[in-house]
Design goal:
The protein is built from 8 helices and 3 strands. It has a 3-stranded antiparallel beta sheet. The protein is mainly alpha-helical and about 190 residues long. It has one domain: Transferase(Phosphotransferase) domain 1 (Transferase(Phosphotransferase), domain 1, Orthogonal Bundle), CATH 1.10.510. Helix content is about 50%, strand content about 5%. Helix 1 crosses helix 7 and helix 2 packs across helix 7.
Amino acid sequence: MSSTFVTLAEVLECRGGPLLEDEVWSLLLGTAESLVDVSYKGTVILLIIISPTSLLLSATGTLAFKNCTLSDEAMAFTAPEMLQGLSYSNLSVFYQMLVYSLGMTLYWSVDYHLPQNQPVQLSDHLNSLLLSMCEDLAQRRVNLNSILESCESQHKASLLPPPNRVIGQLVEDVFHKNVPLRILLGCHGM
């Protein structure tokens, strides 16, 4: 199976609509696992903002992050404290900024191309979790470990497929459903 990556933005563009709730839970679990793993290792990653164009999905079901710095495109996904020029002197502050940008990215993905008068289709549980990730005040934001616990609990309770399977399927859908239209639509892997 190919290890080619596509961005979340490409998945949504090729689909022409938002992610489904189960897909969001899978992306959230996969991303939280990756970030918790990196944080426990004490590794500093260059990534500053998670956005639809910096969250990479592979056909093998893995996730990666493309470095994304502050730009006009990334502003909507950037934590308020970063926009205010506050420094992130320790890793916990840094990861809280990533929680914010991940929450904004996933919320954007469930609102993608919805008509203005149509509400986002999310359970109260997921909606509440995403909103708590997008809190303007960093100290009020949910932390990575709590996100991970919530996702694991949801996956067990709902018998959701493993994140790698869902992520792989999202990528395969881009490659298989749009192969003849890929050039016309501008959808392509990296």
